[in-house]
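Consider this record:
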Amino acid sequence: MALNVLEVTIFAMVLANGDPLVCTRQDGTEEMVLCTNGQVAHLDHDRITFKNDIGVVKFPDGTLTFTNGIRSHWGSAGWVQFSNKISIRRNPDGSFKTSKGLVCRALNDDKATCQKD
């Protein structure tokens, strides 16, 4: 299973408390993504693990738990709310809007960004 770079970018942004970043798949591998904020993500069995050993566990109902204690739940109007005060929702064009004023989008299969729009 290859890492979804947009998904990794969103998780890295949540870990960075909503700071902008760009993440890129490492050349020659489908299992490692490098981000401009220093985060490195790789597949660890059935979860995504970052360089600081923080893993992201996805549950069947769509909720997420980060091993550092951050959790998500479905909020109002389609927003996913994280316990560190970050919220995110999908836009009609497939990008994601965050409560910190960023828009996260895939630039291609190997690169994604969360930046001010």
The chain is about 10% helix and 45% strand. The radius of gyration is 13 Å. The chain has one domain: 5-116. Helices lie at 5-15.
